[in-house]
């Protein structure tokens, strides 16, 4: 069965960076795009960007451009999301999600369990 | 960016009654090339990741009970829950995928039991 397992919770100081991993299993890793979505405490869902695990190509929401990097390691079926220059507003639960359809950017059909990032001095 | 606006922000419905959630996009998400609406609906229960309910506005994801239905076209969409059950308490989100590689979510609608 399809599974996405994310790395554990992080606590960071303002100005620092955080790198979250998302390891996939149960399907052909390079066939499906991976989305990153975050959710601040008590708030809604915010799409951050997408990575094509086959090519490594990425697209980011304008809000995060210049501050986010998404990479993948096809030897371990893992994607990474790196967010720098953290502020308290980046405190959130971060999700990775596999797309519904191969080679497409449609919707998140399978989701990781979420990684809580807390930014605090 | 396409802005997605949901209404209401929250609603309380009696068990067995109908819940209706609206979603409006700032631009049409109907692709005329294939006559498909590039819209999805999710359910998020407390402490869980979102669960995909519908895509192409009205195509039900496998395993979603048929008391849930998605409808609408262009800029106006509706998620309907017929005969609300206790397990349907959740926050529901719409999301457009019309803009390639640039998804946006609505603000969410919280459904509770009256």
Q: How would you characterize this protein structure?
A:
The complex is a heterodimer of chains A (121) and B (114). By secondary structure, chain A is mostly beta strands. Chain A has no helices and eleven strands. The relative contact order of chain A is 0.32. Chain B is 0% helix and 51% strand. Chain B has no helices and 13 strands. Chain B is mainly beta. At the A-B interface, strand 5 and strand 10 of A face strand 6, strand 7, strand 11 and strand 12 of B.
Helix residue percentage of chain A: under 10%
Helix-and-strand structural type of chain B = mainly beta
What sequence of helices (H) and strands (E) makes up the elements of chain B? Answer: EEEEEEEEEEEEE
What is the share of helical residues of chain B? under 10%
Spatial separation of the terminal alpha carbons of chain B? 36 Å
Please tell me how large the radius of gyration of chain B is: 13 Å
Could you give the count of β-strands of chain B? 13
Number of helices of chain B: 0
Uncertain ranges of chain A: none
What is the subunit arrangement here?
heterodimer
